[in-house]
Fold this protein.
Amino acid sequence: MRKKIVAGNWKMNKTLEEARTLTAEVMGMVADEVKGNAITILCVPFPYLVPLKNQLGNSSVKIGAQNCSEHDSGAYTGEVSALMLKSIDIPYVILGHSERRLYFGEDAKLLAKKVDKALAASLTPIFCCGEPLEIREAGTHEKLVKQQIEEALFHLSAEALQKIVIAYEPVWAIGTGKTATSQQAQEMHAVIRKHLASKYGAGVAETISILYGGSVKADNAKELFACPDVDGGLVGGASLKSREFVDIVKTM
Ligand code: PGA
């Protein structure tokens, strides 16, 4: 059975004190209400990884980073490698978020390298894909998303691919309050799974968790997560409020 996952993407938000408070609230509520039904992950800014990981202790809530370098070490000022994340026991890392693609020029070639580094360090990449509005309007969104996946992931062995979580995040739905309809999400998730199956076989494709991201809220999560190919969500804005985030987790 595929894993159900709700991951919060805090982006560049919160002071340490606020981060500790949010973590404590999420931990408390998830323990009470979710009882291990879904994997809950908090993807937090680099400086908070160690303190929040320590705070989470044995909680069912896991921690993740939001990016890593394509290099192992060296003169890359300001960068953080997958090996560094591994050395502090971070299990998850978001890669290829549309904000990284847009503001930091991350392209498929670079992302393929980052995916390799993350896997080599035994991290689970949460690999993001998704089309901007003009591509959706032009009707070429399926083609683009298939290409994003092919270029960054299709060099992997089937065994390596099965260690990846994919997040489909239409760029027009991120932070805009415009969620994809459950039909739009299901259609694209099915396209992604079929594309994985075309390369790796249906058996492998069936094991990959594909999350939806883009203005997921407590009041739309239920319908989105009920789609057969939607295995959870990558949640931005709503992950910054404990009650809202845990309500999303609960819908799993
Ligand atoms: P949003 O962000 O939930 O605020 O739309 C999602 C994301 O960027 O991962």
